[in-house]
Amino acid sequence: MLLALLGGRPMSASTLADVAGVSASLASSHLRKLVEGGLLVVEAAGRQRLFRLANAVADAIEGLLLLAPPERVTSLRAAVRGQNLRRARMCYDHLAGTVGVAITEALADRGVLVAEARGYAVTAAAPAVLAQIGVRIEQLERLRRPLARRCMDWSERRNHLAGSLGAAVTSRLIELDWVRLSEASRVVRLTATGRRGLGDWLQVDLSRGAS
């Protein structure tokens, strides 16, 4: 259930029960414990109660995934799902996997990001480069949230971009239909439009795996 919520979208208890393959009563019991333990936050949406990860829990889960042994592949379906997760997925509200790392490294190559001890410095080149896809960095700088953080990618073993800038870039890529979210899954699909757009914007070659 925690891995499902790592996709960044709040989910109902019934949806999480289906994801976990357990009964509604067992899911409710575990969800109650996760809320009491501070790992999940529950919020009302009309008559529904939706669950989401508490702050910083997503980073903790991604960190644990770095230590986890490789998952045993038991079917072709599981193998394909694993490949899709590694290619592009949501890490709460920002893009991870091969696509997320490629974008981050391309932004560094363009001089937008410079790695520091605890994150990334955003340079004077950033506003012009990010404005090309409609991201206004001056609006993000007013937020309390860190602007640009490094997040170690469990599948690539390299960093992808987190923080308010990582979230804003990801949100804009979704709006442009360069990437598409999957229903009830963390998997993100790169579209043909996105493949071309990222090539034009950052000269990123992601020719494989477009939908």
UniProtKB/TrEMBL annotation:
InterPro entries: ArsR-like_HTH, HTH_ArsR_DNA-bd_dom, HTH_Metal-responsive_Reg, WH-like_DNA-bd_sf, WH_DNA-bd_sf
CDD domains recorded: HTH_ARSR
Source species, domain of life: Bacteria
Annotated HTH arsR-type domain residues: 1-72
Coiled-coil regions listed: none
Protein name in UniProt: Helix-turn-helix transcriptional regulator
Organism encoding this protein: Pseudonocardia humida
